[in-house]
Amino acid sequence: MASPILTWPNALTGLRALGIPLFLYLALGPEADGWAIVVLAIGGATDYFDGKLARALGQESKLGEILDPTIDRLYIVATLIALYIRDAVPLWLIATLVIRDVVLGLMTVLLTMKKKPPLKVTFMGKAATFNLLYAFPFLLLALSDSTAGEVAFIFGWAFAIWGVALYISTGVSYFLTALKTIRV
Questions:
Q1: How many CB atoms are located within 10 Å of the residue 12 CB?
Q2: Given 57, 134, 177, 180, which residue has the most CB atoms within 10 angstroms?
Q3: What is the domain-level CATH number for residue 79?
């Protein structure tokens, strides 16, 4: 695996990171929900394409392996904060996702201290993140007083429930894998 820093996929991931403060501004400042949803959609698309691009160009890197899931987590936390402030999601949902990420973050630190390789992102882990990132624009749209808002509420919570279930199950799987790796 190459380890260059300046690659097209890493640039795309960096661009995605710039969307986080823009999303927060749009969702919490002028409440320009339409534009905030567009930023989330672009963030989701670039999350998909940076990995595809890395594999297609042979530009997979250690930085990309760390940066991509880190930006995913930051997007999730930022979006949850905005949705919570706007009364679109309950605190238990945020606590569940944040606790899982904190536990796995601590496991990553332990792996690093033991000079073990980082956890590999699994397909189910990607599916969990996909479901959550798909839920958020719907939950934001659900805040509107319209038929579209009512439909978005149903879709948003369907994706959120699946996403949380997958997030918890993959969190347990990652945790057990990390424990096994640390013990070896």
A1: 21
A2: 134
A3: 1.20.120.1760
Domain membership flag for residue 110: yes
Inter-axis angle of helices 123-141 and 62-85, nearest 10 = 30
Would you give the distance in Å from CA 16 to the centre of its chain?
11
Residues 94-127 have pLDDT tens digits of 999 999 999 999 999 999 999 999 898 899 999 9
pTM of the model: 0.85
